[in-house]
Amino acid sequence: MLIIDSKDCENIDKALKKYKKKFEKAKVLVQLRERQSYTKPSVRRREVVLKAVYKQQIASGKLD
Predict the structure, then answer these.
(1) How far apart are CA 47 and CA 28, in angstroms?
(2) In angstroms, what CA-CA distances link 59 with 50, 51, 56?
(3) Residues 51 and 37: beta-carbon distance below 8 Å
(4) How far apart are CA 61 and CA 33, in angstroms?
(5) Is residue 45 part of a domain?
(6) Residue 6 within any structural domain of the chain
(7) Interval 2-54: pLDDT, tens
(8) Nearest to 14 by CA among 25, 24, 22, 26
(9) For residue 18, what are the domain limits?
(10) Cα–chain-centroid distance for residue 55?
């Protein structure tokens, strides 16, 4: 749970901005999307390897 300390004289827009920044830093939305479906560790590793191969091909100039 995110808690924002706001002073009485503080504008509601500033408090909302603080909340949004804290929400983004906590990566709550990323965690929720991650938990929506289960990915097997082997699939996760395969994705990482394929991304690395793709980046390497771009860097070497083989892929345009």
Answers:
(1) 23
(2) 14, 12, 5
(3) no
(4) 34
(5) yes
(6) no
(7) 788 777 777 888 888 888 998 899 988 889 998 999 999 999 999 999 999 99
(8) 22
(9) 12-60
(10) 20
Return all residues near 57 (Cβ < 8 A) that are at least 6 apart: 63
Q: What is the pTM of this model?
A: 0.50
The DSSP-derived string for 1-64 is -------TTS-HHHHHHHHHHHHHHHTHHHHHHHHHS---HHHHHHHHHHHHHHHHHHHHT---
Residue 22 lies in a domain: yes
The Cα diameter of the chain in Å comes to: 60
Q: Tell me how many domains the chain contains.
A: 1
